[in-house]
Amino acid sequence: MTANEIMAELQSMGNEGIKKILLKHGVKEPFFGVKVEHLKPIQKKIKMDYQLAKELYATGNADAMYLAGLIADDRQMTKADLQTWVEGAVSNNISEYTVPWVATEGKYGFEMALQWIESKDEHIEAAGWSTLANIVSLKPDSDLNMPMLHSLLQRVIKNIHSAKNRVCYTMNNFVICIGAYVKELSAEAIAAANEIGAVTVNMDGTACKVPAAVDHIQKAIDRGSLTKKKKTVKC
Predict the structure, then answer these.
(1) Are 179 and 136 in contact (CB under 8 A)?
(2) Residue ranges of domains in the chain
(3) How confident is the model at residue 227 (pLDDT cuts 50, 70, 90)?
(4) What angle do CA 112, 114, 119 make, to 5 degrees?
(5) Distance, CA of 95 to CA of 166 (rounded, Å)
(6) What would the DSSP string read from start to end of the chain?
(7) How do residues 115-166 score in pLDDT, each as one tens digit?
(8) Quick count: other Cβ atoms within 10 Å of Cβ 53?
C-alpha cells in the first residue's frame, strides 16, 4: 500500500462521533476520527515499513501519525527521525504514546528522553517523561541506569506540582512505572508517590482521572509486574 492509498482508506473510516471524543482528549486537527481497532488490520497487512511510516507521519494527520507509529521499524529510526517526530507530535496521543513507543523500542530512547525532558515545549517534555516510563516497563532492570532513575524520581518530587499540565500527568505515570516494574526502586517510588500526594491535572472536562500512584503501584505489585516486563509498549 502507498501512503496515498492508506490516507484514502483512513478518510473512508473516519467517524465524526469519534472525532468529537478525540478532540476533547487533546487530539488536534487534521484527522478523520478513526478508531484504533480499525487501524489494526492495516498494521497487520503492512507489518513494518520504515519509509512508509515516515511518509504517513509527515502528513500531519493524527490518524496517519498513530498508524505510522504502529508500523515503524523502530530500530531504523535515527535521532533526527525521532526529533522530527517529537516536534510534530502536537496531539496528546502522538506525544504521549506514538513517539514514546517508537523511541522506547528503538536504539536511542533513553538518550532522546533525557534530552526531551529539558524542553520548554509541553508536548516534547511530556513525550520525554512518557518515554522514560515506557523504557522502565520494557527494558530488563539490568539494562537500566539506576542512579539516573533515582535522580529523576527526586526531580519529579521537586517539580511535579509546578509542571505544565501534560508534563505533570506523564511525570505521575513515570513514578507509577518505576514502582510497578523496577524492583530495586519500587519502594523508593512508593515513598515518592506518598510524598507527592494528590496530583491535579486539567482533563478538559472529560471523565478521565489522574491515576493514584500508590494504588496503581500496589495493584501492579500484586499482579507480579515487578518480575515481569512488558513484551512491547505498542498497542
Answers:
(1) no
(2) 1-72, 91-228
(3) confident
(4) 90
(5) 10
(6) --HHHHHHHHHHT--HHHHHHHHHTT--SS-----HHHHHHHHHHH---HHHHHHHHTT--HHHHHHHHHH--GGG--HHHHHHHHHT--SHHIIIIIHHHHHHTSSSHHHHHHHHTT-SSHHHHHHHHHHHHHHHHHS-GGGS-HHHHHHHHHHHHHHGGGS-HHHHHHHHHHHHHHHHH-GGGHHHHHHHHHHH-------TT-S-----HHHHHHHHHHTTGGG---S-S--
(7) 999 999 999 999 999 999 999 999 999 999 999 999 999 999 999 999 999 9
(8) 27
Residue type, 157: I
Angle of the 122-138 helix axis to the 109-116 helix axis, nearest 10: 150
Contact assessment for residue 93 and residue 22, using Cβ atoms and an 8 Å cutoff: yes
Let me know: does 146 contact 185? Beta carbons within 8 Å.
Answer: yes
